[in-house]
Amino acid sequence: MEWLFFGLIALGLVGVFFSVISFPLFMILILLLTGIIWLVDYLFFQKKRATGIDEPTAVEYAKSFFPVILLVFLIRSFIAEPFKIPSGSMMPTLLAGDYILVNKYTYGLRVPLVNNIFYEINHPNRGDVIVFHFPPDPKVDYIKRIVGLPGDKIQYQDKRLTVNGKLLEVVAEDNYDYEMEGANIISARRLQEQLGEVKHDILIHDIPNHYDSESLGEKLMNGETITVPAGNYYAMGDNRDNSSDSRVWGFVPEKNLVGKAFFIWFNFDKFGRIGNSIK
User: Fold this and answer.
1) Pairing state of beta strands 109-110 and 226-227?
2) Which of 12, 113, 160, 220 is most buried (CB neighbours < 10 A)?
């Protein structure tokens, strides 16, 4: 049982470590460590090492891991990054347990850690499903759908969206039953919504919404029209009555964008979802 005991301790330490330090920072630190070990050995010790003498273990590991870590770091930072969907706020588009890929270059190449754009490519469009750093706590990543672009005027009355004075078209589809953690089976109405060029499904429940005073959600419920500030986006979950989104915590700053979700690559419980594109 000793291996189990020490294994649990190790897992606990790893959990504490990653609660303090972000994974991108961890990647950079390991990349620097292995690179420095390899470089120092090459500059100062390799030529002095007698023929037939093995490299130190640390150098051997550094030379083996550095190229792999560098490749993974470049792919995750500038091409695509995997994420796991933690909740049902984006149902029925995304389910809790979906493993997705996020395009990291669609909205421009960004400096790792600080997330500043150094090469601009495209801007988000209405209907895009985005991953972003949660504004109240940037260490946490959220996923929602962009509803409002900078300058857009948003209204949300009777669970219907109006963007720039145009009521979005919806088409009733069917009832959608699902089970929430710690709750019974919940039934919702599934509707198809036309958001810009994107047609996507949303869920509407026959329950009232409640928001804190001065929140965007409270203002919308009171019939106010909100204007999306420059450099920000208004985001909502597809599971409209079961989503903590811009109605609760405000706008998404452009600097918080991580990338555009585009592909489901795995789901342990629903293999049929593997390979689905995200729209």
Assistant:
1) unpaired
2) 220
Q: What are phi and psi of 117, to 5 degrees?
A: -75, 130
Q: How many CB atoms lie within 10 A of CB 264?
A: 21
Assigned token pair, 26: 């961890």
Residue 16 clears pLDDT 60, i.e. is over it: no
Measured CA to CA, the distance from residue 146 to residue 133 in angstroms comes to 14
Active site residue ranges? 89, 144
The span from the CA of 229 to the CA of 187, in Å, is: 35
Tokens of 119: 């090469």
Q: Where are the alpha helices (DSSP H) in the chain?
A: 2-20, 23-40, 57-78, 216-221, 246-249
For residue 83, give the nearest of 127, 144, 26, 136 by alpha carbon. 144
Report whether pLDDT(124) > 70: yes
- 203 bridge partner residues: 190, 239
Measured CA to CA, the distance from residue 271 to residue 267 in angstroms comes to 6
Q: Give the Cα separation of 103 and 119 in Å (integer).
A: 15
pLDDT band at 182 (very low <50, low <70, confident <90, very high): low
- Closest to 219 in 3D by CA, of 251, 193, 242, 189: 251
Place of tokens 């190790």: 10
209 burial (CB, 10 Å; 0-12 / 13-18 / 19+) is middle
| Distance of alpha carbon 11 from alpha carbon 14, whole angstroms | 5
